[in-house]
Structure formats: C-alpha cells, structure tokens
Amino acid sequence: MDEVEVVVAHSERATLRVGDVFLKVDSDQARLDVEVAAMALVPVPTPEVLWRKPPVLAIAAVAGTALGRLGEPSTASPAAWAAAGAAVRTLHDAPLPPWPRRGKDLDELAADLDHECERLVTDGVLPADLVTRNRQVAEAALRPWTPRFTHGDLQITHIFVDGDEVTGIIDWSEAGPGDALFDLATLTLGHEERVGDLIAGYGTDVDLDMIRAWWSLRSLLNVRWLADHGFDPFAPGCEVDVLRSRM
C-alpha cells in the first residue's frame, strides 16, 4: 500500500500524495473551480484531472522533477530555466480567461503593505531599516499593468522539468488576469542568479526593477503569514534573505 505523504497543509487547504495521485483538499470551492477551469484552458502542460468530489480534487502526478526549491540552489540546467521561461511566455500570451482578476487591487495591496510593515517593526520581527528599504523598493510594483493570463502562484516548485523540457505546471487555483511580472518574480524568488536564464527563454524585454519590487513586496507581505502557518521565512535563501539582499 502506498504511504500518504503530506505535501503541504495549513488551515486553508492541504495537499496529500498517495502514489502517483495528488489529493487537494480545499474549503474554498471557488479555488478548485478556477484550478480545473485554468488547466483546461492554458496552452502549457498541466496535470491530468482524475476526479473531483468536493472538497477534494484528485490529479495525476506529472513526470520529472521541480525546477528547484526555495532556499536551495537549483540544479536545473540553464536550458531548463529557459524552457520554463518560454512556457511562461506562452501562458502570458494566451487569451485572458473568462473570470475576473482574483486577489486584491492596488489600493488593497498598498493598505496591506502599510499594515505588514508596521507590524513587522512594532512586533520586532524585522529591523526597521530592513523594512523601510524594502518598502521603498516594493512600492514600485504598485502601478497599473496590462492584464495577462497569469498563474498567480508560480513558485519554483510548481514547474516540473525532465532534462531541458517542461513536463508540467501545477497548482492553478490562483490563475487569472494579472501582472506578468508577478509570475516571473514569484518563480525567481530566492534565485536571482537564474533570472537571466529564465528571461532568455521568455524572449522579451523585462523590467528587472519591477521583478525586484515584487520580490520585496511578496516577501514583506508573507513573512508573518509563513511563520504563523508553520513555515520558516528566516531559513537560508528564503524570504528574509531576499529582503536582506536589497540592502
């Protein structure tokens, strides 16, 4: 009998692996609706949907291995990173999905940034100079952008490769119209040295300052949430190190 592996689990959702099947349990059915719809639309490799019985979605494992992990050097080749960039560009060039943008608007993000920066300092989580510097960097991301079909949570562990080929992109529950540079920043968070390889495959001019702004913004907003949900943003190469790299 296959063992049950807990891939990720917190108060909002959990993902379990049993053999070659992933079981996603989510209390928010809208997220699962988006995930299934997005995988049916996107012009990039995705997992096969095996069955769905709310609140559970079963999907097949994809071949290959993740492009890397946050906090660890990526062992994937430059060509694999370029292939990932090409796949993301294909996604961003696809027609927009029929559902509205998920997540918060610019005013809400700005308010969240104000709140989190204040809490990080007053609670003694991070030094004031570190927060202030990264807030200055992060504010550049709070600008209008042209909506693209985005993944919305394109962490490095969500792209799988076999050699130099992308075999699958997983976890589409946040997909929708969004900022293409947010996807690129999420994918390269903690792997600044691989940005050039990714952009080589993406194949267009990219505003690196905007990517750095999203690194700071995402990290500032996530440090307390990660700590509260059993993750360690202070681990080497993770969010706090990303913030320190801007000093």
Automatic annotation (TrEMBL):
What Pfam families does this protein's entry cite?
A: APH (PF01636)
Question: Domain Aminoglycoside phosphotransferase, which positions?
Answer: 37-204
Q: Which UniProt keywords apply?
A: Transferase
Query: Care to name a GO molecular-function term for this sequence?
Result: transferase activity
PANTHER family referenced in this protein's UniProt entry, alphabetically? AMINOGLYCOSIDE PHOSPHOTRANSFERASE DOMAIN-CONTAINING PROTEIN-RELATED, AMINOGLYCOSIDE PHOSPHOTRANSFERASE-RELATED-RELATED
The name of this protein is Phosphotransferase enzyme family protein
Taxonomy-wise, where does this protein's organism fall, top ranks first?
Bacteria, Bacillati, Actinomycetota, Actinomycetes, Kitasatosporales
